[in-house]
Specification:
By secondary structure, this protein is an alpha+beta fold. The chain has two domains: about 90 residues, 2-Layer Sandwich (Phosphorylase Kinase, domain 1); about 190 residues, Transferase(Phosphotransferase), domain 1, CATH 1.10.510. Helix 3 packs antiparallel against helix 4, helix 3 runs antiparallel to helix 8 and helix 4 crosses helix 7. About 10% of the residues have low confidence.
Length: about 325
């Protein structure tokens, strides 16, 4: 069990920890003061490595952490916190990022729900535009960087109304052959926003389309005031995903259809990249027409609703045939 560090602890003779601001399976996130730059606040992400790892495995994992952290430190985008430092201290690995003030979008959703209102559609679409730009930037890196934990709780709104996609605790870099991803920072993300392919010990088959699913789930939550059903539930209960327009009539058809497209169960059925998502949301391209529902395995009830006219005609023919037979 990983034990948190005490307030007042100074890391690397520079960062004085003030308090814990987050905690998860990967370790703690601390708010810290930079003693070399008075007034500067940092968020320090602790990256946990399995205690049972052998010395050789530990050496490999640490080497990979340093390699990936150095790439994250090169990122520079207005909707991403800047990774300014990374280091190992007393056997623990740390990422140092800008501390982002403000509430996260999950808090804003909850506050809106308590008041009995939906978030303003224009405001959400402005947030969506910023979020899309940040993810496009990540995916266009060489190698592409996957966030793998996109969700409202990991998106902060600063006092100047700028979004920041935070918490790179699950970030991955695509391997050179684009067939799988590599990382020492393991995890699955949060169930409502996690596609089926991201489950499993290694999550080897995740790519940019996994982030697209999480993006779609995040937009659904923001626009519907509730998260979509989990991917596992949708697999067992096809047709459980409602149309956004059924929940919020202010949502345009382009946005509703694009979110459904992003939430396709199979990666091959989703958009290939986030640029395509942005173009579809803005009505610049059409969402592919599909005979089946977005779930890979269409439910009987959903199939009947989608084909109500031919089904009704078939039933009428059967009734007429039975009547003729009886006569």
């Amino acid at each position: 069990m990983l034990i948190s560090l005490d307030s007042g602890t100074i890391l690397r003779d520079r960062y004085r920890l003030t308090h814990i601001v987050g905690q998860g399976g990967m370790g703690y996130v601390y708010r810290a003061e930079d003693t070399r730059l008075p007034g500067r606040l940092c968020a320090i992400k602790e990256v946990k490595i399995e205690a049972s790892a052998s010395p050789e495995m530990r050496k490999q994992e640490q080497s990979q952490f340093l390699r990936e952290a150095s790439l994250l430190a090169q990122l520079d985008h207005p909707n991403l916190p800047k990774v300014s430092d990374f280091f190992t201290d007393s056997g623990r690995d740390y990422l140092v990022m800008d501390f982002v003030p403000g509430k996260d979008l999950k808090q804003l959703i909850d506050e809106s729900r308590v008041s009995g209102q939906m978030l303003d559609i224009n405001l959400v679409m402005n947030w969506a535009d910023q979020l899309l730009d940040a993810i496009i930037y990540l995916h266009q890196q060489d190698p592409p960087v996957l966030h793998r934990d996109i969700k409202p709780a990991n998106i902060k709104l600063t006092p100047d109304n700028r979004l920041k996609l935070v918490d790179f605790g699950l970030a991955k870099l695509l391997a050179t052959d684009d067939s799988r991803t590599i990382t020492v920072i393991q995890g699955r993300g949060t169930a409502y926003y996690t596609p089926l392919e991201q489950y499993g010990a290694e999550s080897e088959h995740t790519d940019v389309r996994s982030d697209i699913y999480a993006l779609g789930a995040t937009l659904f939550h923001l626009l519907a005031g509730q998260p979509p059903p989990e991917a596992k539930e949708r697999f067992l209960n096809p047709g459980s995903l409602r149309s956004l327009r059924d929940v919020n009539q202010d949502v345009t058809a382009d946005v509703s259809e694009t979110v459904r497209w992003a939430l396709e169960m199979h990666p091959d059925d989703r958009p290939d990249d986030v640029i395509t998502v942005k173009e579809a949301i803005n009505g610049q391209i059409n969402v592919p027409t599909r005979i089946k529902t977005t779930d890979e395995h269409e439910g009987i009830g959903e199939a009947l609703r989608a084909n109500s006219v031919p089904v009704a005609f078939t039933i009428i023919l059967l009734i007429l045939a039975l009547a003729i037979t009886v006569l």
